[in-house]
Specification:
Number of helices: 7
Structural class: mainly alpha
Strand content: under 5%
Number of domains: 1
Shape: globular
Number of strands: 0
Order of helices and strands: HHHHHHH
Helix content: over 70%
Radius of gyration: 15 Å
Length: 165
């Protein structure tokens, strides 16, 4: 059962995380709630990395995603720090990091998988997540648009991964 949760859980967690980030940006969530969310996410990432590391080291694509999880753990801690201390730069770094890290891994995944394994979907997810990063960092429009674009791209990528495997 634990294996099934590790394999299929991210398809629900990715859009949930972006929905949570969007709710935080529009002011629906209290800072304490956002801090707790960061700490829970950091704990989940650490547990996932520990429980999955051996298996994820067996394939180049999975190794790339393991790197995202480990780097994402650190980015999430930076976000927790930002929320706890009111450091908007650290919080913004965390959001941009969570847009960019998966974008890079999606692009890599799309480049190494055969076309019949939905490589184009991963590439499209990477492009959308990357576009969301640019929109956020360059302040091109409301942050909610950037969050939605990146979240959709990443949800596309994880959805294809769960459906394919």
């Amino acid at each position: 059962m634990l294996r099934s949760v590790r394999e299929r859980g991210p398809v629900g967690l990715v859009p949930l995380a972006w929905g949570f980030a969007t709710a935080a940006h529009i002011g629906v969530l209290a800072d304490r709630t956002v801090l707790i969310g960061h700490l829970v996410m950091a704990a989940l990432l650490a547990a996932f990395a520990v429980l999955s590391a051996r298996e994820m080291r067996t394939h180049p694509v999975l190794r790339a995603w393991l790197a995202v999880i480990v780097a994402g753990f650190l980015v999430t801690l930076a976000g927790a720090y930002g929320v706890a201390t009111g450091n908007a730069g650290a919080a913004r770094f965390a959001v941009a990091g969570w847009m960019l890290l998966p974008a890079m891994a999606l692009a890599y995944t799309g480049s190494v998988l055969p076309r019949d394994e939905q490589a184009r979907a991963y590439t499209a997810g990477a492009a959308l997540s990357g576009l969301g990063t640019v929109l956020l960092v360059a302040n091109l429009g409301p942050p909610v648009v950037a969050l939605s674009v990146a979240g959709f791209g990443q949800t596309l990528g994880i959805g294809v991964a769960v459906a394919e495997y």
